[in-house]
Write a structure and sequence with these properties.
It is found in: Cytoplasm. Belongs to the AccD/PCCB family. Its EC number is 2.1.3.15. This protein has 305 residues and is an alpha/beta fold. It has a single domain, classed as 2-enoyl-CoA Hydratase, Chain A, domain 1 (Alpha-Beta Complex), CATH 3.90.226.10. The chain is built from eleven helices and nine strands. Strands 3-4-5-6-7-8-9 form a seven-stranded mixed β-sheet, sandwiched between helices. Helix 6 links the parallel strand 5 and strand 6.
Length: 305
């Protein structure tokens, strides 16, 4: 019984009992009025049907977002997506062949932080279909055969490890053997600390393979997405014949918070965003995801000519 009705009933005398019964009756009627819908008639809303833009808070269905290439229909914010979504967007007819999917990371050092590295890997493999922080696939973009290496941030922050280095190196060999270009879609927090020097060695390994592609006169395009940091930016992420950014992507070596605390100064507006990097000469162009496939087709046509 609501507090108001309790207080009224306490103040009633014996002669007022009929009035108390009326109060109880009216209270129960109000409660009944709110539960007239049976449980069987209620419809549950499935999870994942709606998504909210982190930038402008616009809410739309996941179907609408995917049809718009995971770009906010209102403010053009580019949502973070993984390799499966990029392959679907870029490859003709969503037809491609994944290469080197059987290669997996191994704990050579017996590294332990909050949990052992091998246990961390096992947990990720159980929860997702990702084998490591990068997938390599070959298919056609606007009729041009292309090999794409795409990082997945959901796998330990897209960190650079020995498996990533090996997959990219083999991908470069595949490009040279088949005379096709390579696109590297970067999305990484940097080197994988659990692999220590094994991780850092991949910077030189991949850079060397890209040098071989350059000698073979095969295009290498680096697409930097949000976020791209650390050793990836410091090496092969910026070695493309064309370095391209997505709109609003955060790209750098150290994060803006670390830089600000180090130099003790406020940073320029938009610092480390792709638009800022384009203005200062670190990028060659910015391509909207909705136009990316068509633009890549034009680029590869120009390279052939």
């Amino acid at each position: 019984m609501a507090k108001k009705e309790e207080d009224i009933e306490k103040n009633l005398t014996g002669d007022d009992l009929p009035q108390a019964d009326a109060i109880r009756s009216s209270w129960f009627k109000r409660v009944q009025k709110g539960i007239l819908t049976s449980t069987s008639e209620k419809k549950e809303i499935q999870e994942g049907l709606w998504t909210k833009c982190p930038e402008c808070k616009y809410t739309c269905t996941t179907t609408e977002l995917s049809e718009n290439k995971y770009v906010c229909p209102k403010c053009n914010y580019h949502h973070r997506i993984g390799s499966a979504e990029y392959f679907d967007i870029l490859f003709d007819g969503d037809e491609y062949t994944e290469l080197y999917a059987n290669i997996r990371s191994k704990d050579y050092l017996g590294f332990t932080d909050l949990k052992p590295y091998d246990k961390r890997l096992e947990d990720i493999w159980k929860k997702s279909d990702l084998h490591d922080s990068i997938r390599v696939a070959v298919g056609k973009i606007e009729g041009h055969e292309v090999l794409i290496c795409c990082m997945d941030f959901d796998f330990i922050g897209g960190s650079l490890g020995s498996v990533m280095g090996e997959k990219v190196a083999r991908g470069a060999d595949y490009c040279i053997a088949n005379n096709i270009p390579m696109i590297m879609i970067c999305k990484s927090g940097g080197a994988r600390m659990m692999e220590s020097a094994f991780s850092l060695m991949q910077l030189a390994k991949i850079s060397g393979k890209l040098s071989q592609m350059s000698d073979a006169k095969l295009p290498y395009i680096s697409l930097l997405t949000d976020p791209t940091f650390g050793g990836v930016t410091a090496s092969f992420g910026m070695l493309g014949d064309l370095n391209i950014g997505e709109p609003g992507a955060l790209i750098g070596f150290a994060g803006p918070r670390v830089i600000k605390e180090t130099i003790k100064k406020d940073l320029p507006e938009g610092f480390q965003r792709s638009e800022f990097l384009l203005e200062h000469g670190f990028l060659d162009m910015i391509i909207d995801r909705k136009e990316m496939k068509q633009k890549f087709g034009v680029i590869f046509t120009l390279f052939k000519n």
